[in-house]
Specification:
By secondary structure, this protein is of the alpha/beta class. It has helices spanning 12-23, 83-103, 139-152, 175-184, 203-216, 232-243, 253-267, 276-280, 290-298; strands at 3-7, 27-32, 46-50, 68-71, 111-117, 128-129, 160-166, 168-170, 200-202, 220-224, 272-273. The strands form 3 sheets. It has a 7-stranded parallel sheet, with helices on both faces. Strands 6-11 form a two-stranded parallel ribbon. The chain has a two-stranded parallel ribbon with strand order 8-9. The chain starts with a strand and ends with a helix.
């Protein structure tokens, strides 16, 4: 069994992964800005450390205890992008990663799994995107670029580094909580034209892909997206069907940009991302189709 340190362990993905790892018998050290964590009092092998990981501090002492680090820290992007909040989005990801690497000694030789996002590629139109494609030029793409660069510095410390470029993670919580509110209020629908590609992954497949890479000790860059690409309007229709709600109320592009500013503009972008490296290694998805994925979430 391993000791696994998880930054952002109180978030949607972090809580899910922590539970699975604890069930498997691993020891988990959770880091995050929340003062408490629900797992810290259940008698399991879970230690909670409340800290701002974008700043150096005593929390870094836990790095050397870990065999594996899962770096999930990052402020939500679903808030207004003021100049100050964009700095929080950046620092919570890039500085946290730099602080993790700085805390490793030169013989750490563990596994670092660091999050990135499909937004790394920027707006790619209808082009099919794989792990070898270049970085985009917008704000989120540049955040992802610097985030990944910091993670790969750990190779100089002897670590095996795997970068996980997440699509929108589907599960009970996270982005679906944000999107589902409109549908439950009968005002759901596509964003803009809805023709933009929508990279996604079921949280169960995300966790399985992480465990696959951890156990097989694969490293490098991996797209954590479902193998079936679809457009945003197709996802909108599927979500409406899963919730038994209409999905015919589109949000015009100009309105999205006017109301949500730079965040809105980013939501109108798309990436037709495929998980080429995971598939090449033989990983199989339990939820390759978005209809089945949403049914699993809402009709379990």
């Amino acid at each position: 069994m391993k000791t696994i340190l998880i930054t952002g362990a109180s978030g949607f993905v972090g809580t899910y992964l922590s539970e699975i790892l604890l069930e498997q018998g691993h020891t988990v050290i959770g880091l995050g800005t929340s003062t408490r964590h629900p797992f810290e009092s259940d008698g399991s092998n879970f230690t909670w450390v409340s800290a701002d990981t974008s700043e150096p501090g005593p929390w870094q002492d836990h790095v050397e205890q870990a065999d594996i680090i899962v770096n999930l820290a990052g402020r939500s992007i679903f808030k207004p992008w003021t100049k100050a909040y964009k700095r929080e989005i950046y620092d919570s990801r890039v500085k946290t990663t730099g602080n993790l690497v700085a805390a490793m000694d030169n013989t750490w030789e563990g596994q670092l799994f660091s999050t990135s996002a499909a937004g790394f590629y920027g707006d790619r139109g209808d082009a099919v995107v794989s792990e070898t494609d270049p970085c985009g030029k917008d704000f989120l793409a540049q955040v992802c670029r610097d985030w990944e660069d910091e993670a790969f510095q750990a190779e100089d410390k002897g670590a095996d580094v795997s970068v996980m470029r997440f699509g929108v993670v589907l599960g009970r919580g996270g982005a679906l909580d944000v999107m589902g509110k409109a549908y439950k209020s009968f005002v759901g629908g596509p964003l803009g034209s809805g023709k933009q590609w929508f990279p996604w992954i079921h949280i169960r497949d995300l966790a399985r892909a992480f465990l696959f890479l951890m156990e097989e000790k694969h490293s490098g860059i991996f797209n954590f997206t479902g193998p079936t690409a679809l457009r945003q309007k197709e996802f909108s229709k599927a979500l409406g069907q899963a919730l038994n709600r209409p999905s015919f109320m589109p949000a015009p592009a100009f309105m999205v940009k006017t109301v949500m500013g730079e965040l809105g503009a980013s939501l109108l972008q798309g990436q037709r991302v495929l998980p080429d490296r995971l598939l090449a290694l033989g990983f199989t998805f339990r939820h390759p189709d978005v209809h089945g994925a949403l049914d699993r979430i809402y009709k379990k």
